[in-house]
Each structure stands twice: as C-alpha cells, then as structure tokens.
Specification:
By secondary structure, the protein is of the alpha+beta class. It folds into two domains: 241 residues, Glutamine Phosphoribosylpyrophosphate, subunit 1, domain 1, CATH 3.60.20; 175 residues, Rossmann fold (3-Layer(aba) Sandwich). The protein has 17 helices and 23 strands. The N and C termini lie close together (12 Å). Bound molecules: adenosine monophosphate.
Length: 470
C-alpha cells in the first residue's frame, strides 16, 4: 500500500468574495491537469474555517450542495497528484489543522527534501502525524514557533528545504509563499470585480475572470486580507531554479510560467528540434496531446505537412496515473487510435514532449506500425530524463527511467523506431527567456541545485500509517 510523498500539484486562493468556494472550484477545474488524484477547498467566514476534500477529479469531489455549504468570504484550494501506489483520503489537501494559534489550512505544490528528518525530530518529541505527506511538517513548525517568534510563519519557512509554493488560509487572511529558489510557479492576480487571488498558473486566473498582477517572488510571503495585499520577505532569493519541465510538459499551454507563455515555448522547442534533427518524411504527427505544440513548431520549421495521425479518446485520464503496468497498457490502447489513411505507407516524424519509462511510447509506436506506417522518426522535445526529481515532478525511481541506464540507440531499439532524437539541453534552454542558469534541469543533467539525500526512502512517511482499504 505504498505511496510516494512527491506531489506535483495545483494551488489557489481568493480573498473577499462571498462566493469564494465557487470561484475556487472554477480555478481548480482549470488547474485539473496539475493533479487528478484528489481535490479540496477550505474557506473562512472571518472567524472559523471549514473544508471539504475528497479523492478524484474536481467535479467528482464537489457539487452545488457541497459548494453552497462552504460559505465564506475567502477560500483556498488544491489539486493533488502523486505517483503510483495507494491513494489515501487522509492525504488530500488543503490540510486543516487546529493549533494554539487558531485554525490554519494549507495547500502545497512542490516537494520538501528534509520532511522525513523534520518529522522524525517531531515524532521523537511526541508529536502525532495523521497524514503521510511532507506538507504536514509545516503545520507542526507553525505550531512550534507560535508562542516564541514574532513571525511564526516566516520562522517556520526557514526550516524547509526543497520546493514549495504554499497557500495558507487563516481566519483573517491568506498567506501565499514561494520558496527562495522559485521551483514551482505561483502568481498573484486580481479579479475583474476587485478581489485579490493567487494561483499556480495563470490559466486559473483566466478561468475566474482575473488578470495576473505579478509573480509571487522567490523568498516572498504575500498576504491577502481585508486590508488588501501586503508583502514581506522571509529569505533572500537564491539564483532561481525554475523547473524547466513545467514548460516541457506539465503546465497548461495557455499559461504564462516564469515569464514565458508555455505554448510559445513548446512551439520553439519543436522548431529547434527540427533544426537539430532533420529527416526526410511525408508528414509530422503529434502525440496527442502532449506533443502537439512542439509538433506544430517542428512542421513549421521543416516545412513538412502537419497531420493528425493519432486520435485521442478524451474520456480516458492521463495513462501515467494508472498504478500498474497492465492497467497503463490497456489505457494506452483505449486512449489513442491511429488513423490508417493518414499513416499507412507514410514516412512519419512523430513528435512527443518526453519519454519517462518508455512503455507508453512503445505501445504508441506499435500502433502506428500496425496502422501501416512505413518509417517512424521519433523526435522528443526535451533531453533524456536520467535522474530522479526531488522537487515536485513525479518521475519514478531512476531504475525505471528508460534513459537512466540506456543509450539513445538502445532506447531506439526498444521503441522499434527507425530514428530517435532527443532535444539537446542547450537547445531546450535556448527556447526560454531567462538565462540558462535560472532553471532546474536536474532530471536531465543530475545537477541538483541543493543537496538531496538520494538514499531517503520515499516511503519513510508511510511507516506509521494504518492500511486503508477505502
Ligand atoms: P512513457 O513512454 O511511458 O515514458 O510515457 C511518456 C508519456 O508520458 C509522454 O507522452 C509524456 O507526455 C508523459 N509524461 C511525461 N512526464 C510525465 C509525468 N511526470 N507524469 C505523467 N505523464 C508524463
């Protein structure tokens, strides 16, 4: 019944409107791509907090009746996605806690690399934990510092190592926080009727009719309350370590992330890919949906026609979230169907954003062959993923990453394609606006910005949990 503590999630918060829960719901819906495992909303009515969380997609967790019951003039929300393994309702966020300072709810996007150590320290002092997420140590820190420090939140954050975009809800305010490296995105916005809000992605702001004001800065705490927006620093900004994979795969194409529009970056990735690895072919085919933007760029730069040769079934979730390989394989078959009249007898350039385990990709390539493809030239719009991510993207154990122990030629052979090219690291970094040193590329390069304990058992935080069969 294992589950990893890593999360790549979405967070949101809005201060002021009487229909806060409904707005949070809409924002979470827009950020569904950031997490499909559980969803939750916490609200404040000015003196008390209330919350509803549950397993599943946002519309599966909420309905009108539940949203109406979540009455309050402020709310925060969370979309959660962890890797394979059992799913537990107790880990759904926002976490709502009672402590000596009152009530607090917290929603977290990212991954703490020192959570296991912090938790062990607290447990030896008698603290009881009721989840297996890294996030819970944050509320324990807050409670511990409540009486002794002027700014318990700022003090608590100084103890955290790793990636965290956090939204806290207290009865009288929202506090939005971004780690000093800015690993994950977090933006401040204003609704068209004047309410302040924060979101992981601008797509959530668009959904509720808000506009982006600015990014929450690395090392900054932004407070939203009846007094408007105020800001303070809890740490000096570091050289940023913005996750480049947000641009490659994770974020919504319409979002602006780290100062660049994701769709534009992805098209550029495809253009550079075409220049790095040209090949004669009849058409460029995207792997839906993740390869679409890059395929468009590839087709434009190579002047080879763009065709849709694989049709997705929109009603199957992302195959990656299926816990077992057998379930993943079946889901791939249902999810994608090749169009024989487009691919049969053709030399195809197939573009996708990334290869992780390689198993889904192999299934897709086999389908194209069965549909009669004459040649398959696979082009991937990022470098080979060889290393684990400790900062919030769900890459499996490195031994499961196909590129970890294999050469590009061996991967080509495994996938049974005629040629294979991964975009170079330099090529990828040339497609974003910030200087190359301001992005975290550790999953490709192994160059971790802060020290990580690679021996830490990802299941450490599970050890005291009861088995749950629900
Ligand atoms: P595979 O061939 O099994 O490695 O799967 C590759 C597909 O997974 C690509 O189409 C990617 O878009 C997608 N993918 C990449 N990273 C992730 C991730 N962290 N979670 C879910 N899917 C991913």
């Amino acid at each position: 019944m294992a589950r990893e503590a890593k999360d790549k999630c979405g967070v949101f918060g809005v201060w002021g409107p009487s229909d806060s829960a409904h707005r949070v719901y809409t924002a979470l819906f827009a950020q569904q791509h950031r997490g499909q495992e559980s969803a939750g909303i916490a609200v404040s009515n000015g003196s008390r907090l209330g919350a509803h969380v549950g397993m599943g997609l946002v519309p599966e967790v909420f309905n009108e009746t539940i949203l109406d019951k979540l009455a309050g003039n402020a709310g925060i929300g969370h979309n959660r996605y962890s890797t394979t393994g059992s799913s537990r309702a107790c880990n759904a966020q926002p976490l709502l806690e009672e402590y000596i300072g009152g009530q607090v709810a917290v929603a977290h996007n990212g991954n703490l690399v020192n959570a296991a150590r912090l938790r062990r320290d607290y447990e030896t002092r008698g603290h009881i934990f009721h989840t297996s997420t890294d996030t819970e140590v944050i509320t324990h820190l807050l409670a511990s510092h409540h009486l002794s420090k002027d700014d318990p939140l700022a003090e608590s954050l100084l103890h955290l190592q790793g990636a965290y975009s956090l939204v806290f809800l207290f009865a009288d305010r929202i506090e939005a926080v971004r780690d000093p490296w800015g690993w994950r995105p977090l933006v401040l916005g204003k609704t068209d009727d004047g309410y302040d809000c924060v979101a992981s992605e601008t797509v959530a702001l668009d959904a509720i009719g808000a506009t982006m004001v600015r990014e929450v800065l690395p090392g900054e705490i932004v407070t939203l309350s009846d007094n408007g927006v105020s800001t303070r620093r809890f740490a000096e900004s570091q050289v940023p370590a913005h996750c480049i994979f947000e641009h490659v795969y994770f974020a919504n194409p319409s979002s602006s992330v780290f100062g660049d529009t994701v769709q534009i970056v992805r098209e550029r990735l495809g253009e550079v890919l075409a220049r790095e690895a040209p090949v004669e072919a009849d058409c460029v085919i995207p792997m839906p949906d993740s390869g679409r933007s890059a395929a468009l760029g590839y087709a434009r730069a190579s002047e080879i026609p763009y065709r849709e040769g694989i049709v997705p079934n929109r009603y199957v979730g992302r195959t990656f979230i299926r816990p077992t390989q057998k379930q993943r394989d079946t889901a791939v078959q249902i999810k994608l169907n090749a169009v024989p009249d487009v691919v049969s007898g053709k030399r195809l350039i197939v573009v996708d954003d990334s290869i992780v385990r390689g198993t889904t990709t192999r299934g897709k390539m086999a389908q194209l062959r069965r549909a009669g493809a004459k040649e398959i030239h696979l082009r991937i719009s990022c470098p080979p993923i060889r290393h684990a991510c400790y900062f919030g993207v769900d890459f499996p154990d490195p031994s499961q990453l196909i590129a970890n122990q294999r050469s590009v030629e061996e991967i080509r052979d495994f996938l049974a394609v005629d040629s294979l090219h991964f975009l170079s690291l330099e090529g990828m970094l040339g497609c974003v606006s910030r200087p190359p040193g301001e992005y975290c590329t550790a999953c490709f390069s192994g160059d971790y910005r802060i020290s990580v304990d690679k021996q830490v058992n990802k299941l450490d935080l599970e050890r005291n949990q009861y088995k749950m069969f629900t």
